[in-house]
Design a protein that fits this description.
InterPro entries: DNA_brk_join_enz, Integrase-like_cat_sf, Integrase_catalytic, Integrase_recombinase_N, Tyrosine_recombinase_XerCD. By secondary structure, this protein is mostly helical. About 55% of the residues lie in helices and about 5% in strands.
């Protein structure tokens, strides 16, 4: 037994001198047998494996990574090098009115690196403990400057959207869709004709993080969407619902042009960088004040549990309550809400949205 203990002690001493842990002996052989790709070789594979939304957010950062480290193997960069690259991108960010010191650019660069290394861990190219991006802290996120738009200013936005531009019908439809549903741009652009349920006045929203839900809409918006599809759509019920006059599917650029045009007519919109997400804030703020936090949370399509207590599991609002909030918002009857939902104790805000 003493001889065996002496041998073990000798082995431990040797491993310590070589800087090798017992765990490495179990994994190093497998890892070493796998050819480690370069960033140029691997980023394209990762891009094909993620969702279109993730690819859109991280795409420009992956290009920057390949520009700097394309020929390097993904196991080469250290946490310090990743941090230096993030700081370099942060300092190069274009300065705009709503710039926040490049924090978002640095955060997205680190997140893009983490995405690469998560897949590398899954592929057995590196060990979880050797993930360099996981050791780099993201910049602390500042509080959002977005807020609910006051009623008078919202009326100005709606007026400009529906009376100017080359397609006021389309722009008015977009504004109404986002005010009624508080959906994100990605959710609107992902809509298909098959996502409409005209009998129950619902649309099926598919948004970021793979979340999806049936969202109540007013009978008026239902008819507008059906008419829009009849005029501009085709027979493909899996194609895009929202389209330009020539039948091409809508893209994010339409939103960019819309808010740029509104900003040229309303200087305060340009100065504060008002965007579609402000409409989401506006609607959800009203729903929370007029109904409850649980209803606002369901209205927004939030389903995570990181920021709330366990109680939310038992008091979450159902689609019928969301429909009642919509009826209170628009002043219109909804088939899933009670008969008195549109005459809620709080005054309806139908003047937000014009038919």
């Amino acid at each position: 037994m003493d001889h065996r203990n002496a041998q073990l002690e000798t082995l431990r001493s040797l491993l310590k001198q070589l800087g090798i842990t017992p765990e490495q002996l179990l994994t190093e052989t497998t890892a070493a047998s796998v050819a480690v790709p370069t960033f140029e070789e691997y980023v394209g594979q990762v891009a094909e494996a993620v969702s279109p939304g993730t690819r859109r957010v991280y795409g420009s950062y992956w290009r920057r990574i390949c520009h700097h480290w394309g020929k390097r193997r993904i196991t080469e960069p250290t946490p310090l090098e990743i941090k230096r690259l993030a700081e370099g991108i942060r300092s190069d960010v274009v300065v705009r009115r709503n710039t926040r010191g490049g924090r978002t650019a640095a955060e997205h660069l680190i997140a893009a690196m983490r995405c690469i290394y998560r897949h590398a861990v899954m592929d057995g190219l590196i060990r979880e403990a050797d993930n360099p991006a996981a050791k780099v802290a993201k910049p602390r996120r500042l509080a959002s400057i977005r807020r609910a738009v006051p009623e008078a200013q919202l009326a100005e936005i709606i007026h400009i959207a529906t009376t100017t531009g080359n397609d006021p019908h389309l722009d008015g439809l977009l504004i109404r869709l986002h005010l009624e549903t508080a959906c994100r741009r990605g959710g609107a652009l992902a809509l298909r004709p098959r996502d409409l349920d005209p009998d129950q006045c619902l649309i099926y929203l598919r948004e970021k993080g793979g979340t999806s839900r049936w969202q109540p809409i007013s009978p008026t918006l239902t008819q507008h969407l059906l008419a829009h599809h009849a005029q501009r759509g085709d027979d493909d019920r899996n194609g895009s619902l929202l389209r330009y006059r020539n039948g091409r599917p809508l893209t994010y650029r339409r939103y960019d042009h819309l808010w740029h045009r509104i900003g040229t007519h309303l200087p305060w919109v340009a100065a504060q960088q008002v965007s579609t997400h402000w409409l989401r804030h506006t609607t959800l703020t009203w729903v929370e004040r007029a109904f409850s936090y649980a209803v606002a949370r369901a209205y927004a399509g939030h389903s995570g549990t990181n920021d709330i207590g366990t109680t939310m599991t038992y008091v979450r609002a159902e689609v019928q309550e969301v429909a009642a909030a919509l009826a209170g918002l628009t002043g219109e009857w909804h088939p899933l809400a009670g008969p008195d939902a549109s005459t809620h104790d709080h005054p309806p805000r139908a003047d937000w949205i014009r038919s």
